[in-house]
Structures are given as C-alpha cells and as structure tokens.
C-alpha cells in the first residue's frame, strides 16, 4: 500500500522536504557560527591591554592579535603622518589622522590618532605630532582595504594623504622598510602624556564594527532556523500520514487487499 509514496509526485514532495530541512539546518549552523565569532571578538576587545610586541610581529599577519587592546611605547615619526580624507564622525565629514610610532623595540606601529574636521588647515593644533616618548593604548585592527576608501576611484591624492590605512604605504611614505611595520594599525584610545591638542578620539565600534546586530540576536536566529527545520519535518510527516489515510480508505471502499493480504469486503447493498 505504501508504494504510492514512490511515485514521481510523492518523490518530488520528499525531495522538497529534504531540501527545506537541510537548508534550515545549514542556515542555523551559519547563524551559530556568526554568534560564536561575534561573541568571541567582543570578548577579545574586553581583555586587558598587553604590550603590542606580545600580540604581533613586524610584517606578520595579526592573527589572534586582532581586536585585542595593546600598549605601545615609543616616539612618533612626524614626517610620516598621513591624512585619510572622507571619513565621517558623529555625522560630520572629516579625516582620519594616522601617525607611525617607532616603538622601543624598533617596530613601526601605524597609530590612528583620531579624527579632524578640517585637515586642510595644516596649522591647526590637533594635527601637531607630539614630541618625545609617548605611551599609546588602543585596539589592534587589521589593515583597511581599497573598499574602505571614500575617494573616487583613480583620484590622485596630494602628498600627506592616503585613501585608506595600508601599513605598506604608510611605511613607504615614512621612509622605513615595510618589513619593520606592523601589518595593521593601532586605534588610539588613550595617550600618555596627553597632548594639549589632539584629534577627536574614535570609538572602536564605529571604526571597525563587529556586526550591526547583537550577538544574542544571531543566537535567536539560530534557534528559529532549527524550529523551521522541525516544522518542515512535521509538515512532511503530516502530508504523508494523510496520504496513507486516504489510500487506505480508497482500498477499503474498493475491496482491495489490505496489509494482511485479506480483501476487505465490498459494501453490501440491501435488496430493494
């Protein structure tokens, strides 16, 4: 009696059900992975800061050092300071200010010191590079890519400006080997000694947002997709059960053999 479940129409139903369940499970696992990644990155950013040399090496990928708070002590290379135009802060268009810092160990660390609203005014105090030894605390972030640039494609920038934060370019313009530069940059959160004037400090979540939604929202999406998978199984089982019930009723009405091999009696009609 169950052979009807192998007819083309029913096989198509089975295939759709399997695809729906598989799709929901895959999307659920994906959301679970996004939650784990987001939650893990938030935990990294909450850790206590450590020396930048403990987290990264010159020229090497940041790896597990990304998103960590780090401390770097050294002197700024005033001749290597670069302006990154076209960046928005608190709804106002301005520029990032990136200054390379040579640490006591000789590593070149690009430091995103903050944001200014009028970088064309080279004489404004906020653009003055602090002299002497400084200690900078901030977040280690991966290099920007051309996708981060807000200037027009092919637009040539004047000296002292770059389209995005690329350690290789910054090292080249500072006149130091790229092999000595950190493959990333440090987003300044605090500086000691504090300069009299400095660019506006940027929040790490605005510069390098982890996600636009809460990690717990991803976890709820994961649960929802698995509920959808379970609903698809229940829906499929309900259709199959109903099909079997209809098939059995038709066989009983036609007097066809049932599962025990005995023909069901045909309905009798009383003589008129």
UniProtKB/TrEMBL annotation:
Q: Which residues cross the membrane?
A: 12-30, 221-240
Superkingdom of the source species: Bacteria
Q: Which UniProt keywords apply?
A: Cell membrane, Membrane, Transmembrane, Transmembrane helix
Q: Where is this region: Disordered?
A: 250-272
Chief location category: membrane
The leader peptide range reads none
**Record-given protein name:** SURF1-like protein
């Amino acid at each position: 009696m169950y052979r009807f479940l192998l007819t083309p129409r029913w096989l198509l139903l089975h295939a759709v059900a399997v695809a729906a369940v598989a799709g929901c499970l895959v999307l659920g696992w994906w959301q679970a992975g996004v939650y784990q990644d987001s939650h893990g990155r938030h935990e990294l950013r909450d850790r206590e800061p450590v020396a930048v040399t403990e987290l990264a090496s010159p020229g090497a990928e940041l790896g597990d050092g990304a998103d960590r708070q780090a401390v770097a002590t050294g002197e700024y290379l005033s001749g290597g300071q670069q302006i990154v135009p076209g960046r928005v802060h608190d709804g106002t268009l301005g520029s990032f200010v990136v200054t390379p810092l040579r640490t006591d160990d000789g590593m070149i660390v690009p430091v995103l010191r903050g944001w200014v609203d009028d970088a064309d005014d080279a004489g404004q105090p906020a653009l003055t590079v602090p002299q002497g030894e400084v200690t900078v605390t901030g977040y280690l972030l991966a290099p920007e890519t051309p996708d981060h640039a807000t200037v027009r494609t092919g637009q040539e920038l004047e000296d002292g400006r770059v389209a995005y934060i690329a350690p290789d370019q910054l090292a080249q313009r500072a006149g130091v080997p790229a092999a000595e530069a950190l493959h990333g940059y440090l987003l300044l959160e605090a500086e000691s000694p504090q300069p009299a004037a400095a660019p506006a400090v940027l929040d790490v979540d605005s510069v390098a947002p982890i996600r636009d939604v809460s990690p717990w929202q991803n976890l709820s999406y994961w649960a929802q997709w698995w509920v959808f998978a379970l609903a698809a199984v229940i829906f499929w089982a309900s259709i199959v059960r109903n099909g079997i019930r209809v098939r059995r009723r038709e066989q009983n009405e036609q007097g066809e053999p049932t599962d025990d091999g005995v023909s069901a009696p045909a309905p009798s009609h009383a003589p008129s």
